[in-house]
UniProtKB/TrEMBL annotation:
Any one GO molecular-function label of the UniProt entry: ATP binding
Annotated family: Belongs to the ABC transporter superfamily.
SMART domains: AAA
Keyword field: ATP-binding, Nucleotide-binding, Transport
Keyword Transport: yes
Biological classification of the source: Bacteria, Bacillati, Actinomycetota, Actinomycetes, Micrococcales
Source taxon at top rank: Bacteria
Domain ABC transporter: 2-227
UniProt KW ATP-binding keyword: yes
Entry-linked SUPFAM superfamilies: P-loop containing nucleoside triphosphate hydrolases
Name recorded for this polypeptide: ABC-2 type transport system ATP-binding protein
Length: 303
């Protein structure tokens, strides 16, 4: 469990994180989203004690990170996959990290196997691809078998198989009751991986809700309609709150009326319909709507 209360981080005149409070709960994957420079990395660094809050506090399992006697057992973090001593082998890197917590070779072998690094464990990290570096970072985060895992852009640089692996891995860890907090710029992947989302915009929280609620709340339902009477139907649907796009001959994309309403209207006028398909909104659309609003609001506030 991660709890932030009134967290503020200023760098000189720049406020990177502006009074945010949130809770990241165990047993689910919580995604951390926001445009570049929104303050995600700064927040993650404060959680693991790499940056000091200017105001407020953040705790992991009830205590600030630094107050834990054996922090690797509480929180595993992947913050910068490149921050590894490149002359060492992956095995030796993990062994050296583990030594600070009395974690021995058998656990090192376990995390190597868990992250699919067996074939490269004896190779120098300097020669690793970005994807291998990410896997090594995740292996390091898992060393202490922590109940909370923080992953900053864990799928960055991974191939499709690696992306799928991370998704299944973190979902499995959450199902074991762990707290998983991860950031990503890949919306489609986030929609498949996370249960809950916290969205930051310019250092402030602009959404903190289940993924399904964010998708439903940020976009209006759209319906694809195929009919030999599409022009007549478009005229009948015309209303201030309804948008109708004619994408191709005989096809309408309607926003602002549910599929049932369109079907009823067509039936009342005896118009045949060949297809009536509710189009599911994407997280990307909802995210763009959310963050665009935040930017507009901020612009107005500054004037
Ligand atoms: N050490 C620092 N000194 C000065 N400003 C900083 C420092 N670290 C971050 N910032 C600024 O704080 C703001 C938030 O940065 P941060 O890296 O946390 O954003 P982010 O959401 O992680 O962005 P990205 O998606 O690009 O990684 C940015 O405007 C950044 O320039």
């Amino acid at each position: 469990m991660i709890t932030a209360e009134g967290l503020v981080k200023r760098y000189g005149a720049k406020t990177a994180v502006n009074d945010i409070s949130f809770t990241v709960r165990p047993g689910q994957v919580t995604g951390f989203l926001g445009p570049n420079g929104a303050g995600k990395s700064t927040t993650m660094r404060m959680i693991v004690g790499l940056d000091r809050p200017s105001e407020g506090r953040v705790t992991v399992n009830g205590k600030p990170y630094a107050a834990h006697r054996a922090p690797l057992h509480e929180v595993g973090a992947l913050l910068d996959a490149k921050a590894v001593h490149t002359g060492r082998t992956a095995y030796n890197h993990l062994l050296a990290m583990g030594a600070t917590h009395g974690i021995g070779a058998s656990r090192v072998r376990e995390v190597i196997e868990m992250t699919g690094l067996e074939s490269v464990a004896r190779k120098r990290v300097g020669g690793f691809s970005l994807g291998m570096g990410q896997r090594l970072g995740i292996a390091a985060a898992m060393l202490g078998d922590p109940s909370t895992l923080i992953l900053d852009e864990p799928v960055n640089g991974l191939d499709p198989e690696g992306v799928l692996w991370v998704r299944q891995f973190v979902r499995h860890l959450a199902s074991e009751g762990r707290t998983i907090f991860l950031s990503s710029h890949l919306m489609s992947e986030m929609a498949l991986t996370a249960d809950h989302l916290i969205v930051l915009g310019r250092g402030e929280i602009i959404a903190d809700a289940p993924v399904a609620d964010i998708i439903a709340g940020g976009t209006r339902p759209r319906v694809l309609v195929r009919s030999p009477h599409s022009s007549q139907l478009a005229d009948l649907l015309a209303a201030p709150e309804v948008a109708v796009i004619r994408s191709e001959a005989g096809v309408l994309e309607v926003t602002g009326v549910a599929a049932s309403g369109i079907g009823d209207l067509a039936a009342q006028h005896g118009l045949a319909i060949h297809e009536l398909t509710p189009l599911s909104a994407s997280l990307e659309e909802a995210y763009m709507a959310l963050t665009a609003d935040a930017v507009e609001y901020r612009t107005e506030a500054v004037r």
